[in-house]
């Protein structure tokens, strides 16, 4: 996980991790950050991220990438 100064986007790279680990890493990051970009290559990660965000009232936007990994930007409302 990395975060620049200020309120920059926190990047959580969960490639190589199988669910539920990407969602757990996202939940941990959202404790301190208001804007997180999750990168994961587990095919079930999108479903898990969406369910977690719905449960907590977070906004989720799927982003496209050139590689096979999925990318989701998650923000607090």
Blueprint of the fold:
Elements: E1 10-13, H1 21-30, E2 35-40, H2 45-56, E3 59-63, E4 70-75
Parallel strand pairs: 1-2
Antiparallel strand pairs: 2-4, 3-4
Defining traits:
single chain; 77 residues; alpha+beta; four-stranded mixed β-sheet; 4 strands; 29% helix; globular
Characterise the protein shown here.
There is one protein chain. The protein is α+β, with helices and mostly antiparallel strands and 77 residues long. The protein has two helices and four strands. The chain has helices at residues 21-30, 45-56, and strands spanning 10-13, 35-40, 59-63, 70-75. The protein has a four-stranded mixed beta sheet, with helices on one face. Helix 1 links the parallel strand 1 (10-13) and strand 2. The model has no long low-confidence stretch (mean pLDDT 91).
Brief rundown of the structure:
Helices cover 29% and strands 27% of the residues. It is of the alpha+beta class.
Report the sheet-strand fraction.
Answer: 25-35%
Number of helices: 2
Question: What global shape is seen?
Answer: globular
Helix coverage percent? 25-40%
Stretches where pLDDT falls below 50 for ≥5 residues? none
Rounded to the nearest angstrom, the radius of gyration is: 11 Å
Mean pLDDT: 91
| Beta strands, count | 4
Straight-line distance between termini: 22 Å
The biggest beta sheet reads: 4 strands, mixed
The SSE string, one letter per element, is EHEHEE
Question: Helix- and strand-based class?
Answer: alpha+beta
């Amino acid at each position: 996980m990395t975060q620049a100064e200020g309120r920059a986007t926190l990047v959580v790279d969960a490639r190589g991790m199988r669910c539920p680990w990407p969602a757990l890493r996202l939940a941990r990051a959202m404790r301190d950050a208001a804007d997180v970009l999750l990168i994961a290559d587990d095919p079930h990660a999108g479903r898990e991220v969406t369910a977690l965000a719905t449960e907590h009232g977070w906004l989720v936007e799927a982003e496209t990438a050139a590689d096979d990994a999925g990318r989701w930007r998650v923000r607090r409302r």
